[in-house]
Amino acid sequence: MIIGVPKEIKNNENRVALTPAGVNEMKKHGHQVYVQSTAGEGSGFSDEAFAEAGANILATIEEVYGIAEMIIKVKEPIEFEYDLIREDQLLFTYFHFASYEPLTKAMIESKSVCLAYETVERGRGLPLLVPMSEVAGRMSIQEGAKYLEKPMQGRGILLGGVPGVKPAKVLVLGGGIVGYQSAKMAAGLGADVTIMDISLDRLRYLDDVMAANVTTMMSSEYNIRQEIKEADLVIGAVLIPGAKAPHLVTRDMLKDMKPGAVLVDVAVDQGGCIETCKPTTHADPIFIIDDVVHYCVANMPGAVPYTSTLALTNATLPYALELANKGWKKACQESSELKTGLNVVKGDVVYKAVAEAFDLPYVPVEEYLQDEEMAV
């Protein structure tokens, strides 16, 4: 198969979807790999390193899209890329369709095959979302602590306090991978942490493994309203696979928060679980509403691209190899994990949560995975 790796062009996105080691693996299986020039620079991988691994280096993004049968990316295509995508071309990347209707409709019109990292499922887990959730969860505390500083327009409070001075209060909404990593980092810095979830079993687990300065609490609107009044830093860490995140922090709750408190919405690329959040960039990461600082960067791991690229490609490469070796249809027929990754196929929405998000027609993915002789 001919595989293309374009340079990411989303604002301050420095990750790359394939490393030289990944190129080497693809070449060992007989595939051709075309990498756009400087695609790996932000993550510390030079064109020379890719070429030594066996990649062909192309000067422009148009050339990469023009030659590739499968495009491997990190972030969803942006508007500039829409017209470069061809009918039947396979795109393997993060899409987060349910949060952005124009992207969904553009991919429908392209009649391409869109397989989303974030909806590939293994059991009840999301193996291609986990590594970036781990990075984003840890970063949420790092960024939250920074924006609590007074020069950053925060409250001017040190997350862990000092002897004789109370630490900051951190509220984490959601006990999944992001929430777990957030609470772990905040606790490690000495903060007073409360983590909420709607699953009592998950709360029992978190209560067993977390440090003594982490309190678990059942998530409900009432409890959130009470806890948010005292919180210095709130982390939105809610995920519904493939679907738009629910608003757990509503506009009217901000008036009850401390001036200079910080909200970090890690769920922003799925629509956000904080009503007042809107996607921001690393170049302009915050805005303030009702004296509350909002940090809503949609590609947080892009700020630490070396770590993020290695963590992501460790997870995606086996699946990318399977797609390249078998083709998307056979690979999805034989792998229930990849099958759940299909979101848009040749003009049809085949992932129910995406169809429901925008009231679009839904076609069961099985219709595309039948053998032709069976479909007759």
Automatic annotation (TrEMBL):
Belongs to the AlaDH/PNT family. CDD domains: L-AlaDH (cd05305). This is Alanine dehydrogenase. Residues 4-136 form the Alanine dehydrogenase/pyridine nucleotide transhydrogenase N-terminal domain. It comes from the Bacteria. Its EC number is 1.4.1.1. Pfam families: AlaDh_PNT_C, AlaDh_PNT_N. InterPro entries: Ala_DH, Ala_DH/PNT_CS2, AlaDH/PNT_N, AlaDH/PNT_NAD(H)-bd, NAD(P)-bd_dom_sf. Residues 148-296 form the Alanine dehydrogenase/pyridine nucleotide transhydrogenase NAD(H)-binding domain. It catalyses: L-alanine + NAD(+) + H2O = pyruvate + NH4(+) + NADH + H(+). The keyword NAD applies. Keywords: NAD, Oxidoreductase.
